[in-house]
């Protein structure tokens, strides 16, 4: 039974580490907004979604984006071509929901396919877009997701805002519970300054800053 000693010691360490992350990582910075923003003050947003393959609940994920409580946005779905399984889902939903575009990026040659899709989506964005939002297709978004993501940019001193996904396990098995805890730990870790970085699956960036930093030029010659 001596083997139980290191096991429970490791479990105690994990619980203590998660507790510290919850204590310090839960202190998320909040922008100082002078007043609640009216719909007229919300910037125009282009949500760019690179898609490859039809993951489970893809239609539900897309519907959650169409149903955002945000006054002025467009959704740009980008696949490699119209043979991608996700294309059928997109083509089925778009006629029933406005404010969307479907872009076929074609095969990538000297960069990663996801980057290639992102660049194709940027090229199709509305000319009056003020904020770019980059979003993964594998997650369902609450109705206030877009507002919460863009709100920090309205404070005037921030240019990039990022969220993170949450895992709600469907069962009580150890793999599902472990994934949920691990994702929570990563989410909390990202709020600590030494580890802070935007997550590409849910990031908003002011268009002027995106262009000033020449992010598209970097994506054009990298894999991820």
What does this molecule look like?
The protein is α/β, with parallel strands linked by helices. It has helices at 4-25, 58-66, 85-93, 113-124, 145-150, 174-190, 207-212, 215-219, and strands at 45-50, 73-79, 100-104, 131-135, 160-162, 202-206. Strands 3-2-1-4-6-5 form a six-stranded mixed beta sheet, sandwiched between helices. Helix 1 (4-25) packs across helix 6 and helix 2 (58-66) packs parallel to helix 3. The mean pLDDT is 81.
Could you outline the blueprint of secondary structure elements for this entry?
Elements: H1 4-25, E1 45-50, H2 58-66, E2 73-79, H3 85-93, E3 100-104, H4 113-124, E4 131-135, H5 145-150, E5 160-162, H6 174-190, E6 202-206, H7 207-212, H8 215-219
Parallel strand pairs: 1-2, 1-4, 2-3
Antiparallel strand pairs: 4-6, 5-6
Helix pairs in contact: 1-6, 2-3
Number of helices: 8
Radius of gyration over C-alpha positions, nearest whole angstrom: 20 Å
Estimate the global geometry from the Cα principal axes.
globular
Give the strand order of the largest sheet, numbering strands 1, 2, ... along the chain: 3-2-1-4-6-5
Mean pLDDT rating? 81
The low-confidence parts are none
What structural category characterises the helix and strand content?
Answer: alpha/beta
Alpha-carbon distance between the two ends: 47 Å
**Residue share in helix:** 25-40%
Strand content: 5-15%
Find the count of extended strands (DSSP E, 2+ residues).
Answer: 6
- Biggest beta-sheet profile: 6 strands, mixed
| Order of secondary-structure elements | HEHEHEHEHEHEHH
